[in-house]
Prior knowledge:
This protein is of the alpha/beta class. Helices cover about 40% and strands about 15% of the residues.
Amino acid sequence: xxxxxxxxxxxDSWQGLPAIQQPVYADSAHVDRVVARLGKLPPLVTSWxxxxxxxxxxxxxxxxxxILQGGDCAENFDECTSENIVRKxxxxxxxxxxxxxxxxxxxIRIGRMAGQFAKPRSAAMETRGGETLPSYRGDLVNRMTxxxxxxxxxxxxxxRGYERAALTVNFIRSLIDGGFADLHHPENWDLDFVSHSxxxxxxxxxxxxxxxxxxxxxxxxxxxxxxAQRVDFYTSHEALHxxxxxxxxxxxxxxxxxxxxxxxxxxxxxxxxDPDGAHIEYCRxxxxxxxxxVGNGITDEDLQRLIVTLNPxxxxxxxxxxxxxGAGHIDEQLPRIIRIVNDLEVPVLWMCDPMHGNxxxxxxxxxxxxxxxxISEIESAFRIHDEAGxxxxxxxxxxxxxxxxxxxxGARGLNEQDLEKAYLTQVxxxxxxEQAMEVALRIADRATATPAA
Length: 453
Ligand code: PEP
Ligand code: CO
């Protein structure tokens, strides 16, 4: 039981509290119709899967698994194509192979996929050339093009987003069930990284080792590894647009709990993690595992309240603290956060997001992130958790399977001038395919250097 007080909590009880980062719709009757319709559509995930993920998170908390959460900063509707989904799945599978070899623990893959359509914005309005319009809040809310029609929040987009999330989940499931993720055929996942990258030799060496180990395991046990260990894949998105989350929140009699059935793993972004705010009120009532982004500004008291509110019974597999301080701040911040959590004695999964504290603007106004800082924050996270006797149980990355030029650094030596070549993100800069593989290889190295807990 999540401990939700059934008398005081309901999927819409957040509506009585300050709800920031929500779009303002002109026609509230239209919104009500859409939310009612959304609530009747079949769910995207099941409570069985959500419970399975909770168990895996609980294992990762104890160092018996490791979570790789990754995907775009924001998905958009145009990019809901088979190529894009396949590429993202491939990069996450490849990274997980490398990481399994280094960490010698199962890697649990969670995509920032199938619902990552809404974004928090620092300003509600945007002005260009004398015209002021609502900011773009992601394809779930409005459209990027700067004209009054497209920027007007449109409730129908909630349905269009849900449908694309369903198409994405459906395709991922078919690929995985159809053998795409078969560990015997990692060549299925190769992208052109294999021929170009400086890390290619290292990667192929690892893949061969894994193939040999699989053959060995199967010959002595007489079991096919796929039957022994199914490749699972989970979805996640920021629980930002509360009407969208509320619409698909259902009470399941057989479990006596509420579940958000749009995703396995919703997380609360840094801007909306107010312990007295609507987002926390919503999340406290659902049984899904919950992530919270923890950044530099968080006070001791707010963190304590968030933990106690979201995990009042101290359950394993319930709460993931996704810390995102930046390479230059993690040393001063993380030990404080660890002490607070240890004092409360509430179990959490520690996860490092080395992306959002390392964003900077370069000349010309582009946002970028340096691979050295990303890798440095991950390494510091491993070290600080080791020193504190806690366990880093996962990483949270923004990445794509394409050769974009959004982050600088890496084997090809991308620099600031290269950013113009393929800067495709509408929001935060993502690791490209090779940079993501480099991060995976560094995690594997780091883990090999440190005895597994
Ligand atoms: C994000 O994950 O895209 C994001 C906005 O992160 P944060 O809430 O940590 O800033
Ligand atoms: Co982002």
